[in-house]
């Protein structure tokens, strides 16, 4: 008896949003919308190019995050992740999260106990809407990194705008009568706007927040290539 296995490399679709923004032709916009929905249905991931967030702004965001993560541990801890599980804002230091938080063990309590002993060594800094009182942002004192808060607040709303555009396109691709239906669900009065999560891997990471079902999350990663992982 012989067994053979085969694997195929998944190709993540690329959707060009330029026609969504610039085409006066409704059919061209609908083509973009349907391509976006198809990518989500068939693969679950999609690269979106030519969106409204300029590359120069992204470069500046990465530069600010590099400067943040190059601060001393003492300085970064001036904006710490609050205690407990309810608020996900501020600086999470290596070891704060555990592998058990990102890996399923079913009903195996012994496996969960062992995983709780394994720290997740990444660093992450989370921000969200300044208007969300349920998830208040945790900011550094201005003198620690002057200009950081001002840029990140503006950057958040630019990301928010892109998120809204994507949700409108998804609504169109799903042929929903109400083109604002998804944005109402995502940005309604009881819902926080999408989190802008920016992180760096400071060592060999063992968990990935991108696997968690967080609706409307923007994830930007800055890797310190001087460290393993």
TrEMBL record:
Domain of life: Eukaryota
The Non-haem dioxygenase N-terminal domain, residue ranges: 12-141
Entry-linked Pfam families: DIOX_N
Gene Ontology MF terms: metal ion binding; oxidoreductase activity
Keywords: Iron, Metal-binding, Oxidoreductase
InterPro entries in alphabetical order: DIOX_N (IPR026992), IPNS-like_sf (IPR027443)
Entry protein name: Non-haem dioxygenase N-terminal domain-containing protein
């Amino acid at each position: 008896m012989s067994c053979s296995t085969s694997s195929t490399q998944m190709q993540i679709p690329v959707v060009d949003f330029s026609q969504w923004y610039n085409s006066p032709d409704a059919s061209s916009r609908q083509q973009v919308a349907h391509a976006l929905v198809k990518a989500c249905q068939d693969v679950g991931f999609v690269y979106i190019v030519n969106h409204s967030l300029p590359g120069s702004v992204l470069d500046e965001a990465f530069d600010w995050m590099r400067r943040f993560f190059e601060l001393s541990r003492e300085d970064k801890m001036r904006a710490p992740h609050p205690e407990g599980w309810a608020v996900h804002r501020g600086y999470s230091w290596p070891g704060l999260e555990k592998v058990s938080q990102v890996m399923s063990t079913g009903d195996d309590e012994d496996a969960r106990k062992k995983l709780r002993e394994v720290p997740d060594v990444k660093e992450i800094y989370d921000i969200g809407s300044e208007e969300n009182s349920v998830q208040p942002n945790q900011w550094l004192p201005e003198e620690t990194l002057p200009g950081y808060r001002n840029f990140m607040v503006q950057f958040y709303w630019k990301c928010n705008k892109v998120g809204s555009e994507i949700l409108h396109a998804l609504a169109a691709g799903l042929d929903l009568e109400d083109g604002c239906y998804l944005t109402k669900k995502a940005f309604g009065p009881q819902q926080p706007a999408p989190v802008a999560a920016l992180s760096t891997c400071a060592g060999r990471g063992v968990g990935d927040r991108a696997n968690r079902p967080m609706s409307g999350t923007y994830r930007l990663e800055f890797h310190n290539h001087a460290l393993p992982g």
